[in-house]
Amino acid sequence: MDGVIFKAVDFWLKLHKAFGTYEEGVVLTKKYVRIDYERLVKEVVGRIWKDKPAKIYFDLIKKAKYVKGAKETIAVLKSKNYKIAIISSGPRDLAERAQKELGIDYIYANHLLVKGDKVAGSTDMRNWPIRHDNKAVIMKKLCNDHNIDYKDCIAVGNGDSDIKMARTAGFAIAFCPTSEELKKYANVLIKKEDLTLILKPIEEFEKNQLII
Predict the structure, then answer these.
(1) What is 11-211's CATH number?
(2) Predicted model pTM
């Protein structure tokens, strides 16, 4: 979602800046994001974000800008009967906005719980299902639930957390990637921030699938 559908901004780091917790947030993220995600949620959501104004969070959701061509690209894919899913460690509220405005079929993202006008500080991990290394698990489940072969699945991503999806999908597009490792597993590399540029490679993939 961040950097593919919406302009390349790490939403949670941007929220740290807005809340005035950026420096500590960066330290905690580097320390725990790969080895102890539950501890990261406990420290950030349960401690330093607890009771922060919810308005700041929702303002960022509203202000997030789509990548150039996002609406047009989703519309074209929908017209071809593609099922489109967001699998993101970003905020569910942002994913729900994209779902409503663009017609995304499925969303899997993390939920920052708000009560009243403040961040609740809930560390219930059921609200934080998407981690840096489990997106492919969600993608596989979605395919299995709908009897879709992995080879017919297209993954579009930009970061390290998208590598396993790229390795699993039949076709992988690295869109303005921030990860050198992701490039190794992508069938196509898009360097310009214009999502319509994924349509031609997808069309070529469709032709190859028909030939096979």
Answers:
(1) 3.40.50.1000
(2) 0.93
